[in-house]
Acetate--CoA ligase
Amino acid sequence: MTHRINSFDEYKEQYEKSVTNPESFWAEVAETFSWYKKWDQVLEWDFRKPAVKWFKNAKLNITENCLDRHLETRPDQTAIIFEPNDPEAPVQKFTYRELHLAVCRAANALKANGIKKGDRVCFYMPMVPELAIGVLACARIGAVHSVVFAGFSAQALADRIKDASCKMVICSDFNNRGAKHIPVKNVVDDALKMDCDSIETVLVHRNTGDGIEWTEGRDKWWHEEVDPQSGDCPAEVMDAEDMLFILYTSGSTGKPKGVVHTCGGYMVYTTYSFKNVFQYREGDVYWCTADIGWITGHSYIVYGPLAAGATTVMFEGVPTYPHAGRFWEVVEKHKVNQFYTAPTAIRALMAFGDEPVKKYDLTSLRILGSVGEPINEEAWNWYHETVGNKGCPIVDTWWQTETGGIMISGLGGLSPMKPAHAGYPLPGVQLCLVDNEGVEIEGNDVEGLLCVKFPWPSILRTTYGDHERCRTTYFAMFEDKYFTGDGARRDENGMYRIIGRVDDVLNVSGHRMGTAEVENAINEHPKVVESAVVGYPHDIKGQGIYAYVITTEEVSDEDAFAKEVRDVVTREIGPIAKPDRIQVVSGLPKTRSGKIMRRILRKVASGDTSNLGDTSTLLNPEIVEEIKSGAKQ
Ligand code: PRX
């Protein structure tokens, strides 16, 4: 595979080239893929609309690139290693030839069930091979996948199904996750009772074999539909700008939005970034512990690694089951070379000390990756020293659902490293920091709002069904710039350090959540009049959720009430959004225009009440004392 950068000097050269002549830079990278027809123009863009087209009029199918072209060069190489939740259960391996066959069969089953190019298919599944196979089967026939993380509630699933008018849901019967046994199909049944009229078929993968309810005519078994199919399924010819998938993510306002990625640019960028950030070499075994329900799983378990011809590990379980050394046991077992996980997992495992790590032979590890939230120095050092034995470079990769691929990161082993700093932008990524007025802040040793001023190939194209929302959220804040929602620092050497969100978006264990979304869920409790949610520093999760709640009547048993509130949030969104701390208050600090002053709420939640700033402009300054004295720690 070409286009792997081999030194930091080469990175600088490539970066320079990508900025001075982006079109020829990306055309050269794109040349290494298979296309049915090449582009007429590399890039056409206008951030004001926004309208971005990469590889205009080019034709391709991403699965030709992830599968077919490897059949000539590496048919018997392992494409996917599946490590099940139960360490005693058999590992499954798919060579590229086997994966190709499985995807073609599944694609034919989708077609036989009326799915065609452009139709939306929702996935609500555990991390089993059928999820990757199903997603690729959609891409094979040009259907658009919308994977919903299987920890979301029936309500959240129904919202997403309706927003994209999905025609089919693919799920499992049950899901094994650690010691939990989760009735996944049951959640789908509940969701489909909520006016999901567009759904015609539910395709059920038999995962555990436990009994489930069955709706005749609508529900079908995956194995009955897929197994008899032919293994020959010609790939649909897709335009580079045809939709590949929708993935829902939270913003500061309203319901989660469906971020749309398209075929050509996404393929080129995820593959290029995968090879360079992880310095992937032929024969390496790469493991990303994310769930395919999030963008990290889409780009760096499925598409990037497979297009690069890599061996990618899929793990069904959780880091601490059946013991706190599970990750390291798996690394030893499969001789993993690149390991990519989230700071929250690192912090959780760090709490168990070094012993569970030291038990295993981790000498195969070459590169360690981090993603999802800022990694604090203590966790960085532990990762580096204990897991990496000081010999593995850490790549702290900053990116977003909307960016499709890694934007800021070291290139494993080539770039300078600094704890808690994501580092330098990847080739093709033109960053800038701006002040609140959108004026660019030049030079180094500065801080500001992180924007991108030029398109990269895997930038989001729209938010599904609501292009205006895409424009106002990302492109209207500052003229001609994509606004990330993050604040960042550029140090004296030009390395970036991500400070965190500057909007009302929380990052809980690396999962994005809008405060408004959680508040709306809490407000569904019949006794809740109003609520306000803020984040506060949490040792393991990065951020915890602190909810201030006004009730219709006095609450006599606060613990019981808190449980009820958590249950409501679990029902509306899912357990990941449950508030850690709930404080009943008689009012919320509001400005004269009625806006909640979150600054004060954040300070109280984080236990920092020494300087709350000027509260005299509040409509109800007296409330601050009450909130302070009742703060939950
Ligand atoms: O705040 C940043 C944080 O996660 C946000 C994006 O979340 P999501 O779309 O769910 O994607 C997560 C996985 C790519 C960003 O706006 N974030 C992500 N990676 C990092 C990070 N913050 C600091 N350092 C990172 N490496």
Remarks:
- The CA atoms of residues 422 and 616 lie 40 Å apart.
